[in-house]
Predict the structure.
Amino acid sequence: MAKTAAVQHVCSECGTASGRWLGRCPGCGEFGTLVAETARVRGDRPVAKPLLHLVDVVAEEAGRILTGVPELDRVLGGGLVPASLVLVGGEPGVGKSTLLLSALGAISLDRRALLITGEESVAQVKLRAARLGGCDRVEILAETELDVVCETLERERPEVCVIDSVQTLWSQEIGSAPGSVAQVREAAARLLRVAKASGVATFLVGHVTKDGSVAGPRVLEHLVDCVLQFEGDRYHAHRILRAVKNRFGSTNELGIFEMTGAGLVGVPDPSEIFGKTHGGEIGAAVVCTIEGTRPLLLEIQSLVAPTDLAMPRRVGTGVDPKRLAMIVAVLARHAGLPLGGADVFVNVAGGVRIDEPGADLGIALAIASAAKSLPVRDGVATFGEIGLTGRLRVAAQADRRVVECHKLGLRSVVAPAGTKGAAVEAETLRQALAAGLATNHA
Ligand SMILES: Nc1ncnc2c1ncn2[C@@H]1O[C@H](COP(=O)(O)OP(=O)(O)OP(=O)(O)O)[C@@H](O)[C@H]1O
Ligand SMILES: [Mg+2]
């Protein structure tokens, strides 16, 4: 039997425990993150267990559960792994409940699927289900008490369960309020045990904090098998789902959805939407990036405007600010662009965030187009990494990017020397810009 012991103070950021309250966490150095929680000690001495050799372990390769939402399956690494625990984080209103309800609807056609709602009433869920359609066989329970939830899962053993949200669960054994660090951590740990023991693949919906990480202690992210982040501008219809952590697949995969009146609709060919420029427009270039296994064409827009500021601004939406500063510096130094007295703004279409260096050349081409007031040539797409010396480096998986550009009708691919299939193979940034920009613009 567990019995209660002294109060412990645990850091909500890194999980470091301390006997007394401290203003600053000795583990991560953050201020004001230590929260009181009741520590429990075991009454009985634990009993040692016999060991196994891995060769003796019988593991049946269970098939993955297809969620009926192909973009979600892709991000999960080819479907949901049975008995796994998946944390889905995202800003309020981004569409977490919508996405998971439509997945449950499709799963419920041939498996038992349960929705445990703590945030919305059964009637509210019904309204959403009516809008989405196809959710008639989903089972539902409105419950926030952790013990009841775990008991129900153990008894009913649905194959897939969604808990919306983990922050609403609370356990009587823990003194603190629902949503507090101790409660969220206890809920995740208990559900992890239930998921593994009863074979329930569980989605946990988690809220995100102001800085974008899933609220609650970081240990929550360590506990679960997979952390998915649902991003997107609430004011744009497109939403992006990416895996931050995945024990059963790649973390670079991207799922793209569009929010419509009938729910979230997957966008199987986003290059069609994001990779279009209006011919002859100044400051717009098309770049081909690779997100996971999928090449993606994106329009990059740039504005270069004169400024009186002593420190001109370099503002990027969807690009890494350090990378942007580097590209502006290389453009000024090695391509002779006078950017010292100008503000530079860069924007990536559709709210997509670019993380890979293969997009450098596209960003540089858009800025050069804006700075020189010359449009990019018709049918030009580009990709490649820019070095600090102004020399270009071949991007990873270049052949797949070339194929994607050709597929969308962009025949003039400007890429670093050594890229097979490119129309122009440029050694340096200067050569690539000369090949990419139109010369006889009126
Ligand atoms: N009839 C509708 N037509 C189009 N879009 C809608 C409609 N109803 C709701 N939405 C969209 O669904 C979004 C809310 O989705 P959902 O409730 O799944 O979000 P959530 O991430 O679960 O939010 P929360 O964190 O509050 O639980 C809204 O932002 C809105 O854009
Ligand atoms: Mg919700």
User: Anything to note?
Assistant: The chain has a mean pLDDT of 87. The first strand starts at residue 2 and ends at 11.
